[in-house]
Amino acid sequence: MNTALSQISSSPADSSPPSERQSVLSFSRAELAAHLETSLGLKPYRADQIFKWFYQQLVFDPSLMTNIGKADRELLGALLDFGTFDFTDRQISKDGTRKYLFTVKNDMQVESVMIKQPSRMTLCVSSQVGCALGCKFCQTGTMGLTRHLGTEEILKQVMGVLLDAKNFDDSFSNIVFMGMGEPLHNFDNVTRAISILTDPHGLALSRRKITVSTVGLVPAIKRFFEENVQATLAVSLNGTSDDVRSEIMPINKKYPISVLLDTLRSVPLRNREHITLEYVMLRGVNDTPEDLERLPKLIRGIPCKVNLIPYNDNAGLGFSSPDPKVPHHWQKKLNEKGITATIRWSKGQDIDAACGQLVTQSTRKRK
Ligand code: SAH
Ligand code: SF4
After folding, report:
1. What is the C-alpha separation between 10 and 84, in angstroms, rounded?
2. Which is the catalytic residue, given 37, 111, 152, 182?
3. Tens digit of pLDDT for each residue in 101-113?
4. Domains in the chain, ordered, with CATH?
5. Predicted TM-score of the model (pTM)
6. What angle do CA 287, 336, 210 make, to 5 degrees?
């Protein structure tokens, strides 16, 4: 880690071991208020003040939180870990995309990617170390699940990248849960992170700027809407027949296409809101003319956009990218049927930062 990078972190002067203190990043504002009240007898508005200092002013030293009394500031430093958000490694692609490696608890590693787009940057974060779903085309899927990330480990990625972005004079406008892991498998920690990202006293992002991508865990999708999670949903469809989808995505045996799509037809969407249907195009597997024929019929009645993702085949898992003409042809045909379709070409391929390439360093070295 070079010195320029280490300067972006900051820690409180307090000397008690961090392990005894819970990270500020692990609490929603309501939870922090309750914790402060029980542990220190502080009034709930103290949590509002701490959130503003922390997430809006980027002040991580409680002794500098000057609208809080000096004695309380000292107590806060002893109670809470105000954290360091430094990363272990950063690589920069020739297309401007940046990949970050973060070390989380127990020396585990996760990756996050700042994806450079023409008019904005999107931050792609990880929700788990590995993934239990085992999709056949995905590198993360080959790792199996090691563990869920805690809310503080998800937000450590956001804060680390946010602080480093100052070195590049940029920032992200959108956050997508499309890194390592299945976010809806780690429902509680991911949705708590989203509540902090969208909290008006926290990072205050709009729900339209946050996307959660799921493999299609039907009960969790229902819960996502029941609990009115402040984010947009994207669902990885990736196939138009159960035979093919079950082959490449084992979860399809549990929640087949009709069950998944009927669920999406029934969830309550807000006015003008839509679901994104992701479709990773695998040559000769799910990009055939028959697939194109079936897709519009399958998704009828779902307020959706289709995001076509030409497979990034650097992973060496036996699948290949479609002929580049195919995504364009699909886009045109879908548009003609009144379906909005976009194509997402891979970014950051030279630094292994593209879709489906995120694995831990240790796993990569072993390969
Ligand atoms: N687990 C979630 C989110 C992480 S994967 C999910 O599956 O939706 C994010 C997206 O990347 C998914 O749409 C997935 O199908 C896609 N993906 C995985 N490997 C890929 C690869 N090698 N090339 C292109 N897209 C890939
Ligand atoms: Fe997990 Fe998503 Fe990869 Fe499937 S595509 S293995 S759900 S990360």
Report:
1. 6
2. 111
3. 999 999 899 999 9
4. 23-81 (1.10.150.530), 90-366 (3.20.20.70)
5. 0.92
6. 70
The SS3 assignment for 298 reads helix
Please state the atom number of ligand 2 nearest to the C-alpha of residue 249: 4
**Distance between Cα 15 and ligand 2 center (Å):** 41
Q: pLDDT of 1-19, one tens digit each?
A: 333 333 323 333 334 444 4
Q: What is the CA radius of gyration of the chain?
A: 21
Distance CA 321, CA 37 (A): 55
> In the annotation, is 355 catalytic?
yes
Cα of 138 from ligand 2 centre, angstroms: 6
DSSP letter for 26, please.
Answer: G
Token pair, residue 149, equals 């990330």
Would you call 153 a catalytic residue per the annotation? no
The two three-digit tokens of residue 298, written as one number = 């399958």
Q: What is the DSSP letter of 321?
A: P
Residue 236, ligand 1, Cβ within 6 A? yes
Which of 213, 248, 276, 345 to mutate for ligand 1's pocket (most ligand atoms within 8 Å of CB)? 213
Say which amino acid occupies 65: M
Give the burial class of 217: count Cβ atoms within 10 A of its Cβ; 0-12 exposed, 13-18 middle, 19 or more buried.
buried
- pLDDT given for residue 83 in this prediction: 83
Are 26 and 152 a contacting pair, CB within 8 Å? yes
